[in-house]
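This entry is listed as follows:

___
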Amino acid sequence: MSIERCIYRSYNPNRKPSHPWPSWHNHTGSYPRFSFCPTAGLSIARYERELRENPDVWECFAITDHAFSIAIPDPSKCWPHNWYEDESIPDFFRETGATASRIKSYRDFCKSFSDGNNFFSGIEIEVNLNGRMALTAEEMDGYDLIVGSIHHNPGAPEDWVERHFFQFKRALSLPCDIIGHPIRHMNAHSSKENPLPRELIDETLDLVKEAVVAIEINAHYQQLHDNVLLLQGAYERDIEIAFSMDLHYPEEFGNWRYFEDVVELSEIRYSDLKLFKPKRRASPGEIS
């Protein structure tokens, strides 16, 4: 998405942060580009600056770069999701040793910043059309958290909901702690004037509750009314909430106002929510 579409404009632009926010799903775009979608300005140094200059806004950040772009270090092969249908692509990079080298580089990268306090290490995973992950479960061991997501839902918009739930159930079966942007691929059925039907929100939440994972309130894909219902339903079901900026551009750091608006409109106190906390708690030395 363009930067313009990703910048959130609050209905209360003068609001102040009610407390520091965590963000459990974020990307980096600086060298060596473990995710190919963010801009180069989104570096660890940029995250550190935010924490230093805005302690009233930020509690912590987790870096969760894409597993598929770690496994497939050629953007023309992994993006936009060529590997979903062509399994020779990940096989090629695995056989050449490029995947193993990238995995080691990403682990070393995570060791350089992860402290279990201000910064956490993670990875974002998904499966291709045959249900295969780009990395094995063993290759994802040792991080503080894992986000399971869907990024590609090909086909006609009228079939998106059915295909979304098929892929959503597969994502919930992955070894993940958080289900990322859980209603993103139902966007075709949602607008400010016509939000998602409540039954689709409820079905999503019931599946998440059964899987015992946290559900994400995502500020990158902004569906305000839908996320208010999602938060209310998660609260009613005692589901853990993971607030995530899903940062792709430095210009998105101001999107913490989206969290404030979602919580305010839900009429639930932030302190009453069941908030996600990492359970793996890997220290930098444990990321082997």
